[in-house]
Amino acid sequence: MRHILLATCVLLALAPARVRAHTIAAADCSISHGRQEQPWPEPLNRTITVRGGVLSLRDALDRVSAAARVRITYSDALIEPERRVCLDFTRTALGDVIKQLVGDERVAPRVASNELIVLAPQSPNARVEPSVRAAPLERVVVTGTATGGAQRGLGVSLGVVDGSTLEAHARGDMSEFLNGVVPGVWLWQQSPTSLLARYGSIRGASSFGVSYPKVYVDGVEVANPLVVSHLPAESIERLEVLRGPQGAALYGTDAISGVLHVVTRQPSQQSETSALRVRAQSGLVNSAYASSGTFGQELTISGQGGSVARAASGALSVSRLGAFVPAAESQHITASGRARAIGARSLSEVTARLVLADVASSSNPILVEAVGDAFALPDSVRRPGLARSERAYRDSLARRLQLVRTARQSLQQFTGGVSGTFYPNARWTHRALLGLDTYALNGSAGGLTPLPSSADSALRAAEGAATRTSMRVSSAAVWSDSSWQRTLTFAGEHAVLHEATSNGVLARPGPSTQSAAATTVWRQTTGLVTQLDLAWQNRVFVTAGTRVERSAGFVAEPLVSLLPMVGTSYVHDHAGNTFKLRAAYGKGIRP
Predict the structure, then answer these.
(1) Are 146 and 574 in contact (CB under 8 A)?
(2) Can you say how many angstroms the Cα of residue 272 is from the centroid of all Cα atoms in its chain?
(3) Is the dihedral of CA 117, 119, 125, 126 positive or negative?
(4) How many Å separate Cα 324 from the centre of its chain?
């Protein structure tokens, strides 16, 4: 023990002065024997023996947690986690150990469950309640409300997919994230060589038309929703999908089919935590159109670091798939990061996401074989010299139908944003966000198909480059009493979109002399939002709002539209189940 204490004193002597100010001298580290200052409930009445000498309060609580076989949770704002304490206790109640280590009468251990202890704040003159009732918090969402709120009271149809669910059941393709999970939304399953998402249905909209939601990543609107098709599950906190036009009152132009909000993974809300996760997988992918198995591999690295006040997290995903059909392969690189800083009355966040993809798509092997089988003569009528002309005709037809081709496609996309939230008092909340999304898509095969449809026009128009800059400010005030809670929100939004797309002609059988035309447009949207939310006894909820939208660049003259929305819901809890009845009306536009 003397050697340990001597080494500790040497390390503390070399530490910065800021740390030494909270140091307990080794000579003061005496052993506590079995003292019990007050009766404690289970598990705080457990008797433990734990020794460690002089170390930080954070490390001491970790060792106490392991010795008592319980979890201890706390906030850095309540205690000084780096303060030096003496950890030497013999046959002492867990509650007394924690109280002596914390050494602050304003913080007391509370029992949330048999396996969880919470260090909670209390008034100096308040009577200590050793037990508290732990209840699950309402899910807080950012879609469908102007400043974020609980999902319980929303009058609109909102589906939420947690990141843990995505990690367990999906590989990263948007169709796997949404199909069968969010009612009323499904996507066409795409080949690994496709870089664009194809939405089949949004609340019953026909797949033969152009139907897709407005897509946001951490509050930043993307320039083109169709290029958001591949997302690593490790980088996602949750997906929020608002179905129907009610979201247009908040999100404006092009929200008529709904809104998809991708919330990337935030740093842990626990005390200072550093974690690194690595997931790698590889194997052979069998295909009826490849002579042998195709090698596929994926590597994902995610981690976080910092404290509750300042923390950052990030994820990197690299995947590659070989030629599962002749001349077809794909590789994706996705990197994302998020950082936050919490002040006394403010919250600042920075988010960034980068996508690099390169794929090679070849002829559709099913159609190629179908053409070959249709013009293959049976052996009974086959004559010498006819095989050559038959093969020539089949190849000519394949070329006319554009079946024999290999297209190289690449995508570069970046999404970034800076946001800040300010809490001047208990009533008002002010928020501001500045975001940028840009992409460049080369070699899109959206219009190169022998069976064209009207939806291909949107896929062809995605080829090229675009940049969207968006700005949003909002202020919300809350008034509440024993029965009612009222929230009034004012918001303003302005976005500028610059597109330079290559609009190729719709592919049809036969030769064509038409060529692709490049189109450059500038579009601006401005919206002013007013929204009122009422809640009565956390059971009856009413939301009413309107947005004045000005859209310029779509037609010759700017368009001014009024987008109203009203929704109501009734929520009833019974026998551990929650029942919700809601109705909503909204108006959306797509210029």
Answers:
(1) no
(2) 22
(3) negative
(4) 30
> Please, which contacts does 344-349 make with residues 24 or more away whose CB atoms are closer than 8 Å?
345/422, 345/423, 345/424, 346/420, 346/421, 346/422, 346/423, 347/420, 347/421, 348/418, 348/419, 348/420, 348/421, 349/218, 349/418, 349/419, 349/420
> Residue 410 in contact with residue 358, Cβ under 8 Å?
yes
The one-letter amino acid at 333: I
For residue 308, what is the DSSP state? S
What are 57's two structure tokens? 């309060």
3-class DSSP assignment, residue 102? helix
How far, in Å, CA of 333 to CA of 310, rounded?
27
Alpha helices in 15-130 (DSSP H): 17-20, 57-68, 94-102
Distance CA 46, CA 69 (A): 10
pTM metric for this prediction: 0.70
Using DSSP's 3-state secondary structure scheme, residue 232 falls into: coil
* Residue 331 to residue 360: CA distance in whole angstroms: 9
CB-count exposure of residue 216 (10 Å: 0-12, 13-18, 19+): buried
Query: Position of tokens 């098709």?
Result: 229
Question: Can you tell me the distance from the alpha carbon of 586 to that of 545, in angstroms, rounded to the nearest whole number?
Answer: 10
* 3-class SS letters over 536-587: ECCCEEEEEEEEEEEEECCCCCCEEEEEEEEEEEEEEEECCEEEEEEEEEEC
The residue assigned the tokens 């935030």 is 266
Q: Which of 338, 332, 297, 334 is nearest to 316 (CA)?
A: 334
For 112, 133, 278, 576, the CA distances from 136, given in Å and listed in that order, are 11, 10, 30, 12
Question: Cα(170)–Cα(168) distance, rounded to whole angstroms?
Answer: 6
Handedness of CA 105, 107, 112, 115 (dihedral sign): negative
Residues 6 or more apart whose Cβ sits within 8 Å of residue 218: 262, 263, 264, 338, 349, 351, 353, 415, 417
**What's 131's DSSP letter?**
B
DSSP structure class, residue 267: P
Tens place of pLDDT per residue across the chain (591 aa)? 444 444 444 334 444 433 333 334 433 565 555 555 678 888 898 999 988 778 888 888 888 988 888 888 887 667 877 788 888 888 899 999 998 898 877 788 888 877 788 888 775 554 545 544 444 456 667 777 777 777 777 878 888 888 777 777 667 778 888 887 788 788 887 777 778 888 877 765 554 556 788 999 999 999 988 888 888 887 888 888 888 788 888 898 888 888 999 988 877 644 445 678 888 888 887 777 766 777 888 898 988 888 767 889 899 999 988 877 777 788 999 999 999 888 878 889 999 999 999 888 766 666 555 554 454 544 544 455 555 555 565 556 555 555 545 577 889 999 999 999 998 887 888 999 999 999 998 875 544 444 555 555 566 667 789 999 999 999 999 888 878 889 999 999 999 999 887 754 433 333 444 445 667 889 999 999 999 999 898 889 999 999 999 999 888 889 999 999 999 999 988 877 888 899 989 888 877
Q: How far apart, in whole angstroms, are the C-alpha atoms of residue 254 and residue 551?
A: 11
C-alpha R_g of the chain: 30
**423 contacts 469 by C-beta, under 8 angstroms:** no
Q: How many whole angstroms separate alpha carbon 65 and alpha carbon 143?
A: 38
